[in-house]
Design brief:
Order of helices and strands: HHHEEHEHEHEEEEHEHEHEEH
Radius of gyration: 26 Å
Strand content: 15-25%
Structural class: alpha/beta
Distance between the termini: 54 Å
Largest sheet: 8 strands, mixed
CATH topology of the largest domain: D-Maltodextrin-Binding Protein, domain 2
Number of strands: 12
CATH superfamily of the largest domain: Periplasmic binding protein-like II
């Protein structure tokens, strides 16, 4: 079985037409047809039903397609790894980002990194800390930012860059809107709009309140920072959000206020996996991040 056979098979299965597949592949139709026939002969089974000019996968062909896609992806990844070792400045890095830090941290970092390594490409994925850690461990990500940064364990290696404070946001007409700073105990009777419970940020706020004997009343939850700000601006409640994403992004209908409670802060950094060795381009990116944030301190 040859790599080109898998490529031809996957494209024919996608468009269900031999002529269209050959045009998309920029290969003669006879060559595509010959390789599909050869593949079927090698496997000893029919992968397609020929219906007029159309090609329709058989039941076993559908099963083979699922595995062929996985196999081709792994082969392409293996090829990319070999190319990276020859030249680590041309690889691809898959980066995870929590929703609450994506808009502030990433642009400046990537801009600085691209100045040094313009040929490296990126794929970005957003999600909760739990989702991103799982994607890293299973190999769907190469490195992910997290906040707060977890402790080292058998699967991950954390790198902590800095801590940031959380801030209170209230409607512009709120009783506390003119205050410079407030304590969590001053908010005991307020209605809150927070991130969902699968976000570590939710538990940071909730656990700090509970530790101080305060039971928060959460009336809305959203994964989107702008949605939370919009609901606060409409006077539906108040929220506690990271200082970083509020910087320069305060809605005119809301006010940002410092919090006195020292517990309301979170660490920001990255984690990498211990399950495999990092590729050269991943190592370049990790080392760049370590140096970049060290200079920012």
């Amino acid at each position: 079985m040859e790599l080109r056979q898998l490529k031809y098979f996957i494209e024919v299965a996608r468009v269900e037409h031999m002529t269209q597949a050959s045009e998309n592949l920029h290969v003669a139709q006879s060559a595509v047809s010959r390789q599909i026939t050869k593949l079927e002969e090698e496997l000893g089974i029919k992968l397609f039903d020929r219906i007029g000019r159309n090609m329709q996968l058989t039941a076993v062909g559908q099963d083979f397609l699922r595995q062929a896609k996985i196999g081709l992806q792994e082969l392409q990844k293996a090829q990319a790894i070999v190319e990276e070792y020859a030249d680590p400045t041309i690889g691809e890095i898959r980066i995870g980002l929590p929703n609450s830090i994506a808009t502030k941290v990433l642009p400046a970092v990537i801009s600085a990194f691209r100045e040094k390594y313009p040929q490296i490409t990126y794929r970005f994925m957003e999600g909760s800390n739990r989702d991103l850690k799982q994607m890293l461990v299973t190999g769907a990500l190469d490195v992910t930012f997290l906040s707060p940064v977890p402790e080292e364990d058998d699967e991950i290696m954390p790198h902590r860059f800095f801590d940031e404070k959380l801030r209170l946001i209230v409607p512009s007409g709120h009783r506390l809107a003119g205050e410079h700073s407030v304590a969590l105990k001053d908010l005991a009777d307020e209605k809150f709009i927070l991130y969902p419970q699968d976000f570590d940020l939710y538990h940071l706020v909730e656990d700090t309140a509970r530790m101080k004997g305060i039971e928060l009343e959460t009336i809305f939850q959203s994964r989107d920072f702008h949605t939370i700000q919009g609901l606060v601006g409409a006077g539906l409640g108040i929220s506690i959000l990271p200082e970083m994403i509020l910087d320069g992004a305060i809605f005119k209908e809301t006010r940002s206020i410092a919090l006195m409670d020292q517990e309301l802060r979170r660490s920001v950094g990255i984690i990498t996996t211990k399950r495999r060795n990092m590729s050269p381009s991943e190592t370049l990116f990790r080392d760049f991040l370590l140096g970049y944030f060290e200079e920012e301190k």
